[in-house]
């Protein structure tokens, strides 16, 4: 059986039945295994891809989501060099759930500029589930799931770790990360610390156009995009075959600037001399983010029943800073008696409490898993500018999942889930007075109090069958997503999208129907995976640009309103690898997605940020191990991306492009020590191009230019047998 198949087995086992007491350490990118796959734990009929920690470091980009975007069907909606959020088959934001250590990550993921607060150095493996997974994770998984796990715990008493140094040429990044783990009997522990600093990143152009105004870039640097990150995580607990309880504590802190000529400032009014004095200072506009996370994962083996209980607490604290700028009837001079700091434009503070309980047991020839999820969110706002209201949200779900072995090579799957959610938004009134009708004045109500309840019954059925080297899977299901506070109650300027957004209190939950197929053929030296899909939304929620402009508090920005429409989506991914010789490997990755609105104001158009068709070819060479050099590799890849003419006005089309990348690495061994060396050259020929899923292409700002990335890893410690 092909070595790639073991990845799917591991991902499946961890997805549906993550039995902590039976985890095995996996450090190789690829391993071979023989035997029949269905003798292992259930996989389900969804398409699953996995990257190990070694692969994440090998293909490391500015953020974890940019790293994962190498996988076919995965994109990153980026803003700058180090912030991005995931997109699976053209769906992103609150339609993709990111699950870390069993708990759904909750930040301010509705915003374009709000990247995921996750340290990619601390990730042991990343699994990507393509296709709706609402039957397992609830509302936000309507487009797919990215599941992140820590490194597997040591199997014997011992202590080990790795120290990494990293530097990047494009934005002068420097920093490092220390990751450790240990075990004493049944007690396990570990932790890590990461610190990175970077300057303004460079693009292969001298001029960009903001609101049709030409903005010159000094030395091709995007001014005020510098930043710094500091993260830490600790974990510890008890681990055995029949019982485990592990605690995870982490804090993610980052501060970075936004392109000064494009975020809420008049391009003509920017003091370029001030910003260009240093490429490493962080001026206004900027934001600071702290994300605290505490998770407790528990497993109990009761022979006939296996129980999992996951508890989580998260606090996301985001502050957006900017120079005070008066619009409309805002006071031209900031009042001295204001309790809000003059530079605090917006503040979001979200606290989240989560619980997930699962029970797995056998009933005749069925393996059943029943479970429940619960979540409570409390999000408050502050600052002198308004976009979304404060809100409180409760959600709960009950599900049952059935795995039935029809024959030795055939598995059937079925799932049923009921969800209920309640959201309550708080009223918001301007802190200043505006002129109203009949020569009256008063404070405008931006958001009124709102209470909405949503519920839905979703289902999923699937099958998987093995025909020798050919594996086939099919999955059909229904999913849903409840509207979020931004879609229901937004009423303000979103400088990061150059728009004035208005919510719609009457929105209904999204309903989605999907069909996923998977064909995997793995004879000797060849691996082929083809995964087509079809998706239909009966009421997709989207941000519709109108013909109106808000000249008062919208600073002249175009008004966008949240609306609903029917949407049809289809596409496919292709992965093909061929190893003609033991040391040579050729890999081809391709993706295509097409969306069309079937009703509403934008009938006939696609969806915003729809990724263009693309193909990536990689040729790699691995050297034979020697006394001092092991796991030495060289690789060159080229990604061809087609032009994207299917846009939603005011989006503009993007041209086709090709980008080359180079990678090399080795393990240098001497005197009993090991040094892991990795080199990447991204955008090898300094190509100027626009990525259609990038935020900054809205102002024709191209992607990063040539970037040399050098990382040095120093492993230490060992695992002893006791």
From TrEMBL:
<dbReference type="InterPro" id="IPR012910">
    <property type="entry name" value="Plug_dom"/>
</dbReference>
<keyword id="KW-0812">Transmembrane</keyword>
<keyword id="KW-0813">Transport</keyword>
<comment type="similarity">
    <text>Belongs to the TonB-dependent receptor family.</text>
</comment>
<keyword id="KW-0732">Signal</keyword>
<dbReference type="InterPro" id="IPR036942">
    <property type="entry name" value="Beta-barrel_TonB_sf"/>
</dbReference>
<dbReference type="Pfam" id="PF00593">
    <property type="entry name" value="TonB_dep_Rec_b-barrel"/>
</dbReference>
<feature type="domain" description="TonB-dependent receptor-like beta-barrel">
    <location>
        <begin position="389"/>
        <end position="684"/>
    </location>
</feature>
<dbReference type="InterPro" id="IPR039426">
    <property type="entry name" value="TonB-dep_rcpt-like"/>
</dbReference>
<keyword id="KW-0472">Membrane</keyword>
<keyword id="KW-0675">Receptor</keyword>
<protein>
    <submittedName>
        <fullName>Iron complex outermembrane receptor protein</fullName>
    </submittedName>
</protein>
<feature type="domain" description="TonB-dependent receptor plug">
    <location>
        <begin position="45"/>
        <end position="145"/>
    </location>
</feature>
<keyword id="KW-1134">Transmembrane beta strand</keyword>
<dbReference type="InterPro" id="IPR037066">
    <property type="entry name" value="Plug_dom_sf"/>
</dbReference>
<keyword id="KW-0798">TonB box</keyword>
<dbReference type="Pfam" id="PF07715">
    <property type="entry name" value="Plug"/>
</dbReference>
<keyword id="KW-0998">Cell outer membrane</keyword>
<dbReference type="InterPro" id="IPR000531">
    <property type="entry name" value="Beta-barrel_TonB"/>
</dbReference>
